């Protein structure tokens, strides 16, 4: 038996498994979005989906939150990553460990911390009452900013890690050399660091954006039924009204948005580096 | 303030944002008060004890634990041979297989759960438990393949040939020469997969049934009607558990590099 | 040579669609030390891997000791292979690296111990048994690889550029070590190298390869003095090669040939029938090397440093004595 045959044999179980237990069911679900009520193929389900103002609002909100979280993660990510790569290798490893830690912790537990912080009797409200900033507890939970903050905390580590590994590959002399030539920090950042870390930025951007638009726990816990995002909308439609038609369309939207984000951002990463 | 100081302050703020909430969860979890408040009222472990006393939560923990162990083992069992084939044996259609095998990474979890429920569990008459296991294995296979493939890539290819030239069969070469050298990658992949499965919510959301619910799902269900610090205590315990696992792994893996 | 121990019959080797080695014929007798010499990428490693069994020929046959092994698995061929990169097992001690093959042969522990320790001693590594490969220097790692390959007493040993990762002094030392071992074990060996000096110093016979084919096969003396064509001549140090057509206009040729080649030190500088200009002169200590621009094209010459010197730009007379020239056949198309 030659190596290629052996290779094929070793690949088959995993491939077959993913196929049967994942790809085929997913494909059927996706195909369902193109099925009309009379059984024929058509875009009826999409038309009906977008006719509902609530659905429009949820799609827009999902994109808006995804974009905002990504932008904020990029800004904070560069700030943190630039400081981290400035450290000695040992402290750098330690900080990378600290940044990685939240990824390992249950997102339910992570998000619950925000309930403790932002709830009616949480830290923020207690402080506000104590300092007389307000007479009655303010509502932070079940608002869009709460979802935004929760998602940012959840996903920021991914951006920092991508940027740290990109910045580690920037030649050590690039920044001092640019500074020697009289460039100020903004010029160094936009002309030297940004082009050299474009790949890491794109990787991090894809992870954060798709993470934000496909998150379930954070919008469920911090947004609730008021601030629906696509995933929570899908769950609600299936679980409450057994509305598979809507679920198939949301599935198609989520999958295509994830793939699109990946294509666009990796194009951006390559496109201008020539 | 000069640039350096500004940089450190900013890094400190980011770290506070990332890690601060855990401190808060820990503090809230050991509160002695009757309601979830912050700052906590007194210190006690009674809420942690109360959580452990709830039979449903213990049961959910057992399910999550078993599910994480079994799905991790399943994913490694399927993923290691696949990673080996992709990295070493130049099989036909490698790129297609790579795409298929890593596809669960790019699909939202909730969709996976729904698709499996509708078009795998119901038509094939499969029970919820095996379906849950299958979905978690499919979800973890990409991690297993990726991490193991990376360790294989870091291992020189010719040592297998050297073993074979000394009389080893391909299987002996794999188990005696390759396996010990990718051990750390496999352990890392095991830990990563275990934690991913244990914390997983969206995939499991639709795949639960009477008496079959994972711990994070059970927690989610209780959040809406829990006003005491018990969920905070449970969250704190889970966070500490994860930190302990990661810390231990770092210790062991870090050390084994020098042993 | 029907008594050849190893024989390759019209062996063709491919990677996918690219042909790396085409219709190769090669024979090695029992106890013979053959060097496979050729530039990087000519197919030396590929040929070794085929003899070892790690690569299946797409055509042709490989015969070892009278038996056709073309379809025999590499671990059943009883052929030793030493890798260019050493390929030591990083997780095993030096002792366990050497003992690996013996353990697979299920020898008693006591025998394993004696043989492994003896093999390590024979390459001068006694006392390093418990170290890990990464704790050794490059030269020591190379010796471990050698010990590991010979301890199982293969019937044929293949060495793929074993010295190319060592510095010059170590190379010299290991060269004599390998010669000694080969004589002691009376083991047929194929030694791959791209270094003609190494091949000349070590081998009973040299096979010169180029682009997957054999250009010349002969004793070191023959290869050194009588290269068959321009490619081999250049490879063994004939730096001035002029076609007969070009030379015929200026000189009477001693016989029919496609071209003639001279080593630098066989070119006469200062006297002679031809005129040229010195384009470069480098002082090498014992000798001076000249690059002379002439009507034949560039001429490379090396003369004793105490001879009259010529500076760049100077006109100079020179001679290309046919008595020292090698007549060369045309190259095969690459
Ligand atoms: N694994 C491979 N896949 C495709 N081509 C290869 C592979 N290994 C070697 N080659 C090609 O085969 C030819 C011979 O290579 P090799 O035998 O390694 O040469 P050498 O050892 O003489 O330097 C080269 O052109 C090389 O590019
Ligand atoms: Mg080679």
From TrEMBL, chain A:
One Gene Ontology term from the biological process aspect of the record: transmembrane transport
PROSITE patterns from the UniProt entry: ABC_TM1 (PS50928)
Membrane association type: Multi-pass membrane protein
Recorded GO CC terms: plasma membrane
InterPro entries reported in the protein's UniProt record: MetI-like, MetI-like_sf
Keyword terms: Cell membrane, Membrane, Transmembrane, Transmembrane helix, Transport
Coiled-coil region list: none
Keyword Nucleotide-binding: no
Annotated transmembrane regions: 63-83, 95-117, 146-167, 201-224, 244-265
UniProt keyword Transmembrane helix, yes or no: yes
Major location (coarse): membrane
Top-level taxon of the source organism: Bacteria
Localization per record: Cell membrane
Annotated ABC transmembrane type-1 domain residues: 59-265
PANTHER family: ABC TRANSPORTER PERMEASE PROTEIN, INNER MEMBRANE ABC TRANSPORTER PERMEASE PROTEIN YDCU-RELATED-RELATED
Family label: Belongs to the binding-protein-dependent transport system permease family. CysTW subfamily.
Protein name: Spermidine/putrescine ABC transporter permease
Source organism per UniProt: Roseiterribacter gracilis
From TrEMBL, chain B:
Keywords, in A-Z order: ATP-binding, Cell inner membrane, Cell membrane, Membrane, Nucleotide-binding, Transmembrane, Transmembrane helix, Transport
Residue ranges occupied by any ABC transmembrane type-1 domain in the UniProt entry: 61-249
Localization: Cell inner membrane; Cell membrane
Gene Ontology terms describing biological process: transmembrane transport
Membrane-crossing segments per the record: 57-84, 96-121, 133-150, 185-209, 230-249
GO CC, any one term: plasma membrane
GO molecular function: ATP binding
Topology of the protein relative to the lipid bilayer: Multi-pass membrane protein
InterPro entries xrefs: MetI-like, MetI-like_sf
Alphabetical list of PANTHER family matching this protein: INNER MEMBRANE ABC TRANSPORTER PERMEASE PROTEIN YDCV
Family of this protein: Belongs to the binding-protein-dependent transport system permease family.
Full protein name: Spermidine/putrescine ABC transporter ATP-binding protein
Automatic annotation (TrEMBL), chain C:
A molecular function (GO) term: ATP hydrolysis activity
Any Pfam family matching the protein: ABC_tran
Record carries keyword S-adenosyl-L-methionine: no
InterPro entries: AAA+_ATPase, ABC_SmlMolc_Importer, ABC_transporter-like_ATP-bd, ABC_transporter-like_CS, P-loop_NTPase
Domain ABC transporter per the UniProt entry, residue ranges: 6-236
Keywords, alphabetical: ATP-binding, Nucleotide-binding, Transport
Gene Ontology terms describing biological process: quaternary ammonium group transport
Domain of life: Bacteria
Record protein name field: ABC transporter ATP-binding protein
Organism: Roseiterribacter gracilis
